[in-house]
Amino acid sequence: MTDTRTSSRRLPRTASAPAALPPAGLVGLEPEWSRLIDVVESGTAGVRHGWHLLDNGPQLDALGVSPVGTILCVHGNPTWSYLWRGLLTSATKAAASGAPAWRVIAVDQLDMGFSARTRGFRPLARRVRDLGDLTDALELTGPIVTLGHDWGGVVSLGWAAAHPELLAGVMLLNTAVHQPAGDPIPAPLRLVLGRGVLGKATVATPAFLATTLALAHPPLSAAVKHGYRAPYLTSARRGGVGGFVADIPVALAHESRPELDRIAEEVRALAVPTLLLWGPRDPIFNDRYLDDLLERMPHARVHRFEGAGHLLAEDADYSAAALLWLGDAVVPPAAPPVVPPVEPPGNAAAAAGPWAVAGTHPLWYFLDELRDSDETALVDMQPAPRTVSWRLLSLRVRQIAAGLVHIGVGPGDRVSLLVPPSADLTAVLYACVRIGAIVVVADAGLGLVGLTRAVRGARPDYIIGAAPGLMAARVLGWPGRAISTARYPAPMARLLGTRHTLAELIRLGQARLAAGDELPPEPAPSDPAAVLFTSGSTGPAKGVVYTHGQLSAVSRALFLQYGVGVGTGLVAGFAPFALLGPALGARSVTPDMDVTAPKTLTATAVAAAVAAIDATVVFLSPAALVNVVATADALTPADHAALAGVQRFLSAGAPISESLLAQAAALMPGATAHTPYGMTEGLLMADITLEGIRAAAWAPDGSVNPAGGVCVGRATATTRIRISALDASGASAGELSEEPDVTGEIVVSAPHVKDHYDRLWLTERASRRGAVPGERWHRTGDVGHLDSSGRLWVEGRMPHVIVTAAGVVTPVGPEQRIETLPEVARAAFVGVGPPGTQQQVAVIETVPPARRLHRAPGPLAAAVRAAVGSPVAAVLVVPGLPTDIRHNSKIDRSRLSRWATGILSGGHWVKP
Q: Which candidate, 751, 390, 379, places its Cα nearest to that of 566?
């Protein structure tokens, strides 16, 4: 296709037709929304066209409320204003409840929906003018917020750029404003534009419409599909569908190419609040188009709805997100201006200097300070122990940094690291952060599906990896230019798609440094440094963005709490802390293990790692700890001697029992055993020792402490902990409080709490809900309480709270009571049924393990019910409880709840 005329001539001729009202009975469509209006087409001698649009203005009038503004909604192809019915419903209900009232006008573009069929071809510039003609006829006044989807997004942006005096904000669902001349358009559109296909697929048959409707996740109901098909039942009514496809400006000579390029550039000048809501599963408008929009509108808020696709308006509750954003960002003229909050001292860098938080410094500080030291910086245990000095590590970091700059890596570029814990990973990570690149770290334990979702969502510019990671990236289509840590033969390099090797970067950097080139200016504390992905144990893994200042504050917290610093030997069987070793000036080592399978760590491997660096601090995950204890019999006298030198032992990342911690501590008799509490969003929030756990087991009067949950101790030196109390529905609705014995969501604040979630504005907003103005807090998603001594007790996760007719129940307390029974190895306590009337169900592993799924026999079920002390609808026995993919020790209660629901509803006894 070379121009519009060529494409449009391949479309069947259709007849003109007037605008009409939709038929009655379309699901979700209120008849009173529909209205028709005749509009004079600008630039003509009085040519008029009839428009159909949806408008909740009359309903707002009936409610007696005045709108604070108008949302102008523009559909794409092959949908119509029916796409926006959810927003009309939500906005009207919100106004009826007393919330700010928004008038919603959703148009049917000409030749589409139930607007007039003009019979002519309407290129992009004409459609932008059409929308302006309509708003002029409606005599709309500001403030107006545009909302567009698909090619309606482009049309709405064209209107926005032409009406700055009316514009108050911009909202977009999956769309695009730029198609690089050298890049192919998405495959589905190439297929439709093929010779002999365009007319048949879009006009003569409903194939294009049917294909679009099939993109919904989950599939649309028959009634909703009927609603979308209603305006396009005959080929005579589908001319606009084909016309829209023909107007895709693929070639530079296309009639609409100049208009698209104009809009793409004018978008850069739109300084109004902007919201981008995105469905990542869209085969048409994928994340590269989102990247382009963000490059043009860097101030935009973004939320990617994992699992959603092209029909985001059907896949997710976009209307709730839109109304929340409107309330936050688009201020009515009568309202006072919003003053950006000021972080209090201790929560962010003050004006005194770039590293104003006491004791913090750039992550590479010790690499500069110790650059002439031949003391050990780290030890690689695989494939054989290899010692790396501070001098060598510092040199390699500078060389790799210079090499990265040489190939074009710059500040703000994202670099995904698919390198196992090693000296290579450490050097590459510090090289990236030194030049201001943002490292993307997603644990291989997420599995290929989780990794793919994470890496694609982060949209790295470069990928640095070993062969397994690069092969997965190549096969699964992960974005980013590939750099390998090893040199491969040419055929293998081509297969992996590598552009450079780590050795090549070192040589390039060495030459640049020898020539006197300097590294770029150091990034500021407020600049983003890393995107770290969560475990995904309660949903898709989320990208957590840390600034340089916040990562430095993490290392500061470790120093203050455990004394990890210069001279400390750190064994890190928990990857995040292995990478912090150089930032602390500590020599570090990761034991010989498969980091994707923590249970591969053995006691002898820990002892060997301790001996390699004379370690004084050992940090292991609970999942790894299980096998360490199980393999302790293999320790030699030399191993025991090495372990005896450990002074502090830490285990965190998932709940850990007192007995397991005690068994591990017995292997390191000179160490104080700690179990810190934290999460990817805040790696060190509270801490408790083994002695503290034992003391917490008893009430002040000497009786067994009745508090349900796991005691994780007191807040660390730089952390504040509050509780947001649960209401009767199980929601954390209470004000942030330190009151004891109040169960609610755990909320934390510290200098080292994450900056924000990556491209998850809605999630980020929820995580800070109810925070004191001017302060940075994070809602952890954990539920628990503070006791009278200020200790924090964790009672489970917010999604696992059970809401019964008798009240709210948190799961950990009942699980602990069940696990006191000698016949029970582990227990999970879940809810079945709708919230408010949920039934409590216990799912247990027995001693010895069961060989099949079954209901617990009468005596065991009675013992479980007695231990719980409240009604239990069923006690189910399983050979093994499902755990999340990475931690292995976090029970997947959501999965068990769905499984138990199926069993109790008469379903088959299948493995949960």
A: 390
* Type of residue at 315: D
Residue type for position 503: A
Beta strand segments in 442-542, E: 462-465, 481-484, 498-501, 528-533
CATH number listed for the domain at residues 361-548: 3.40.50.980
State the architecture of 801-904 in CATH terms. Answer: 2-Layer Sandwich (3.30)
- Are 674 and 689 spatial neighbours (Cβ–Cβ below 8 Å)? yes
Phi, psi of 589 (to 5 degrees): -155, 140
Q: Which of 752, 740, 788 is nearest to 676 (CA)?
A: 752
Q: Is the pLDDT of residue 454 over 80?
A: yes
User: Which residues does residue 672 pair with via DSSP β-bridges, in sequence order?
Assistant: 648
Domain ranges for the chain, please list them: 4-329, 361-548, 702-799, 801-904
Q: Is 736 a residue whose pLDDT tops 60?
A: yes
Decide if 660 contacts 675 (C-beta within 8 A).
no
How far apart CA 683 and CA 580 sit, in angstroms, is 12
The highest-level CATH class for domain 702-799 is: mainly beta
Query: What residues pair up with 617 in beta bridges, in sequence order?
Result: 570, 648
Give the bridge partners for 72, in sequence order: 105, 146
Top-confidence residue, 460 or 332? 460
Other CB atoms within 10 A of residue 413 CB: 17
Lowest-confidence pick of 117-126, 538-547, 665-674: 538-547
Per-residue pLDDT band for 774 (boundaries 50, 70, 90) equals: confident
Asked whether the beta carbons of 778 and 384 are under 8 A apart, the reply is no
Neighbours of 137 (CB within 10 A): 14
Residues 48, 39: contact at Cβ < 8 Å? yes
- Report the share of the chain in percent with pLDDT over 70: 92
Amino acid at 836: G
* Burial (Cβ within 10 Å: 0-12, 13-18, ≥19) of residue 465: buried
Cβ atoms of residues 803 and 729 within 8 Å: yes
| 912 closest CA partner among 852, 825, 840 | 852
What are phi and psi for residue 118, nearest 5 degrees?
-90, -15
Element (H, E) at 683: strand 682-687
Distance CA 736, CA 753 (A): 17
At residue 641, what are phi and psi to the nearest 5 degrees?
A: -65, -40
Q: What angle do CA 412, 415, 421 make, to 5 degrees?
A: 135
Specify the CATH class of 4-329 in words: alpha beta
Ramachandran assignment for 432, one of left (phi > 0), alpha (psi -120 to 50 degrees), beta (any other): alpha
- How far is residue 383's CA from residue 498's CA, in Å, rounded to a whole number? 24
Rounded distance, CA 482 to CA 407, Å? 12
Longest dimension (CA), the chain: 99
Three-state DSSP class for 316? Answer: coil
Residue 801's pLDDT band (boundaries 50, 70, 90)? very high
Alpha carbon distance, N-terminus to C-terminus of the chain: 53
The CB-side HSE value for 833 (13 A sphere, CA atoms) comes to: 13
Please indicate whether the domains covering 4-329 and 361-548 agree at the CATH topology level.
Answer: yes
pLDDT of residue 886: 44
Q: How far is CA 567 from CA 377, 576, 578, 582, 647, in A?
A: 10, 19, 15, 11, 13
Q: At what angle do helices 447-458 and 467-476 cross, to 10 degrees?
A: 70
